[in-house]
Amino acid sequence: MACSKFEYVKAYERNDALLPNTWLVVRIDGHSFHRFTQFHKFAKPNDDRALKLANHCAKKVMEEFHDIVLAYGQSDEFSFCFSRYCQLYKRRESKIVTNVVSLFTSNYVMAWKEFFPDLELQYAPSFDGRAVLYPTDQNIRDYFSWRQADCHINNLYNTVFWCMVLDPNSPKTERETQAILKDTDSGAKNEILFQQYGINYNNLPELYRKGSVLHRKQIQSIEASATDGSPVVRRRKVVVIEHCDIIGDAFWTENQILGGSA
Ligand code: DGT
Ligand code: MG
Ligand code: MG
């Protein structure tokens, strides 16, 4: 086919193929969710409906993109880890990132009513997205440890913070509370929660304390064969949502997340 004289503009496009044989993390994060969560009156510090909606969207993303071996979500963010052998879109960064971020966002809007049946979506949410490459298995484990440690630190802080601000007996301003908590370590925060509010931090839901971990698990079922109805064993992989520790070794040895084939 003859080229038009305009076709030269294609040469201005940038080759953004990502390095081969490296773990690829796409992290998406809600745009101005400080405002979005206030506007939609999310429960503080954790809104179950919102966290479950985000998990639903992440599951949809994993069901579409089979190269994703693990996803981790907390607050308004989700990280998706693609296999180091992934060849999706010839590893072109913008194709991968924009598809993940837009699929997540469209599902967020589509499923809003299911998770917030009593609250109309007030305006269109958006998410940013970035890709980061990690060369070693240790790097990718440290990446997820970093995000889960962040979840823990923020959740502990936010739990105490909102207990103090919303305390019906002696409410404090946000500024006062920030000043009180500024120099406290995690032990002191646990102590305030327990002594003043009767809350044992370790008894709070794992959804809040650990975030959400999505990965693929093989399940086995016995079904009738189409030919003669005799029982046959079927195995398939499904995306599961857990709220477990991913900093220690147990999760990784049990699930062989990083052991994909070349
Ligand atoms: P950005 O990401 O630079 O566009 O700005 P933000 O405002 O999204 O900031 P970010 O991502 O650092 O912080 C997330 C905000 O979302 C933070 O203000 C806390 C809020 N948020 C996330 N999950 C919940 C929730 O379950 N309940 C409530 N009340 N707020 C939440
Ligand atoms: Mg954000
Ligand atoms: Mg965030």
Describe this structure in words.
The chain is α+β, with helices and mostly antiparallel strands and 262 residues long. The protein has 8 helices and 6 strands, in the order βααββαβααααββα. Strands 4-1-3-2-5-6 form a 6-stranded antiparallel sheet, with helices on both faces. β2 and β3 form a beta hairpin.
**SS strand fraction:** 15-25%
What is the averaged pLDDT score? 96
| CATH fold title | Alpha-Beta Plaits
Main pleated sheet: 6 strands, antiparallel
Helical residue percent band? 40-55%
Kindly report how far apart the N and C termini lie.
38 Å
Query: What is the count of distinct domains?
Result: 1
Shape: globular
Q: Ranges with pLDDT <50 over ≥5 residues? A: none
Total number of helical segments? Answer: 8
What is the name of the CATH superfamily?
tRNA(His) guanylyltransferase (Thg1)
Instruction: Give me the Rg, rounded.
Output: 22 Å
The CATH architecture can be given as: 2-Layer Sandwich
Question: In order across it, which strands form the biggest sheet?
Answer: 4-1-3-2-5-6
N to C succession of SSEs? EHHEEHEHHHHEEH
Molecules bound to protein = 2'-deoxyguanosine-5'-triphosphate, magnesium ion
